[in-house]
Each structure stands twice: as structure tokens, then as C-alpha cells.
Specification:
GO terms for molecular function: phosphoribosylglycinamide formyltransferase activity. It is a single chain. The chain is of the alpha+beta class and 178 residues long. The chain has five helices and six strands, in the order ααβαβαββαββ. The strands form two sheets. A four-stranded mixed beta sheet has the order 1-2-3-4, with helices on one face. A two-stranded antiparallel sheet has the order 5-6. The relative contact order is 0.11.
Length: 178
């Protein structure tokens, strides 16, 4: 949205703001093809989402294969997919009796939460947890994990196994992966 806090912050700092998608509420928004064109003009290498809840257009997925990431507040593939977002995830984790939850950073594909997993952090589910308490602990780990993954991306430490599984190379020991 043109009026959201992040967009205003960017404008205040002289950072270009791109609106997507074009809708009746955002008539200045771009079409998927125009979005890809503008991102290429800005020489964008990666697209980092933060809990984005809509499907990404196929045009963008194709143009940025292995370059779009999102974060999810559970250990995917559990408690992911359409309808699993926000507090719904944490309530479902607690109701299931799972002993662990956590955060997952995954590549984005054409479906909800099914892209290759890049990194995860485990958070224990405590015996008397409320969804709000669990959500707060998971969110703290999400923030740490996103910084770690973004750093690895910027340092070109994301590598791909022959079978298509992405790994993060250790900064301290390049022969180790996590």
C-alpha cells in the first residue's frame, strides 16, 4: 500500500517505492510483467518477503528463480499452506500437541509454503503455552534467523546440493554447511 509505514520510510530515505499489484485501490501498481522489468532495471538480485500472504505471480517466480524468500512461523512443512498464517499457526501447533515449533525461511514457488527450505530455527512448545506466548518466542527467532540468512545471501554463502537442496555455508569453516 502506498500509505504503509515501510513505504513512507523508504520515501523519506530516498529509496524508490514500487507498488504491486495494480488494483482498484492501487491504480498506480504494476502488472507482473512490468514489475519484473522494473526490478531488472534496479538490478535487484533477491526479493525478501516477511510473511507475505499472497501467491507470487508466475512471471516473477520464473524471473527470480532461487532468489525469492519468505519466512513462516512454523517448522515447514508442518503447519504451512493456505490458511496457515499468524496466530492460526501457533494455535494449530499447540492444539496438535507438537513439542517443537519454530521459524522457517524458504524459497518461494507457485504455491503456499512449498518452496525449498533454506533455514530453520527450533522453538520449544512449553506445556502451558498460549498461542500469544509461543508466537512471541517464534518471532524473536524469526528476526535472528532472517538476519543470519540475509547475511549469508550477501556473502554468497548459499550453495545448492546436486539434488536441489539449498544449504548455507559456514562463514568460519567453508567445508561445513547448515
Amino acid at each position: 500500500m502506498a500509505a504503509c509505514g515501510g513505504a513512507q520510510y523508504a520515501r523519506d530515505k530516498g529509496i524508490p517505492v514500487i507498488l504491486f499489484p495494480k488494483t482498484k485501490d492501487e491504480p498506480d501498481g504494476l502488472s507482473p510483467d512490468d514489475l519484473v522489468k522494473v526490478l531488472r532495471e534496479f538490478e535487484v538480485d533477491f526479493i525478501l518477503l516477511a510473511g507475505y500472504l499472497k501467491l507470487i505471480p508466475a512471471e516473477l517466480i520464473r524471473a527470480y528463480s532461487r532468489s525469492i524468500f519468505n519466512i513462516h512461523p512454523s517448522l515447514l512443512p508442518s503447519f504451512g499452506g493456505k490458511g496457515y498464517y499468524g496466530m492460526k499457526v501457533h494455535k494449530a501447533v499447540i492444539a496438535s500437541g507438537a513439542r517443537y515449533s519454530g521459524a522457517t525461511i524458504h524459497f518461494v514457488d507457485e504455491h503456499y509454503d512449498t518452496g525449498r527450505i533454506l533455514a530453520q530455527k527450533i522453538v520449544p512448545v512449553l506445556a502451558n503455552d498460549t498461542a500469544e506466548e509461543l508466537a512471541a518466542r517464534v518471532l524473536r527467532e524469526e528476526h535472528k534467523l532472517y538476519v543470519e540468512v540475509t547475511t549469508a545471501l550477501c556473502e554468497d554463502r548459499v550453495v545448492w546440493r546436486e539434488d536441489g537442496v539449498p544449504l548455507i555455508q559456514s562463514k568460519e569453516n567453508p567445508e561445513e554447511y547448515y
